[in-house]
Amino acid sequence: MAAPSYNLVTGAVVTAQEALDHFATSLGCPERHQSPASASGAELWVATAITTADEDRDTAAYMGMTEMLEATFVPHKSLDADAEELAISRAIGAIAEFLEVHPGPQAIVFDDIGFRILLRRFEDGQMKLDETLLDPENLNSGGSFNELARRYQAADLGHLEL
After folding, report:
1. What is the pLDDT of residue 5?
2. Which residue, 109, 102, 8, 11, is CA-closest to 64?
3. Which residues have CB under 8 Å from 44's CB, separation 6+?
4. Which of 17, 64, 96, 154 is buried deepest, with most CB atoms within 10 A?
């Protein structure tokens, strides 16, 4: 079974390499690869790409964009549940930081299991966390998402429907 991935989609406000540099630095991923643009560290692997509406019509239509920055974060399968929770919270924290540094169009972060939206930047720039991230029975058993909850309002963000 493949490890779950967590995916960012936003407007192409920077190059894929610039986004990768931010995430690799923020998440301590020293191993870099050029094709595809990716990096890995002790906890996870991250890849970035710029995609167009021709390459991903459904997502482009959902987001109302013709060019998108997409980033994928995959925790290593070798992590135990607590370490995976921490890796996911660090990845979502790095994404939120990226979105604050690079204001622009709306953005979503979703998982590839149920396509649950976990973080969303709305068109007005406001960011919200999905309330399931704060559930100790879900991904917050160790309290890894509590810091993000202090910074962003929690709400039911629903699922990505393409």
Report:
1. 94
2. 11
3. 27, 29, 73, 74, 75, 76, 87, 91
4. 96
Is this prediction's pTM over 0.85? yes
Domain boundaries, the chain: 6-155
CA-CA distance, 155 to 162, in Å (whole number)?
21
Q: Is 48 exposed, middle or buried (CB count within 10 Å of its CB: 0-12, 13-18, 19+)?
A: buried
Ranges of the chain whose pLDDT falls below 50: 1
Q: How many CB atoms lie within 10 A of CB 126?
A: 10
Q: Of all residues in the chain, what percent carry a pLDDT higher than 70?
A: 98
Q: What is the pLDDT of residue 150?
A: 92
**And the tokens for 87?**
């890796």
Model pLDDT, residue 1? 47
| CA angle at 66 for the pair 118 and 117, rounded to the nearest 5° | 10
Six-digit token string for 71: 């980033």
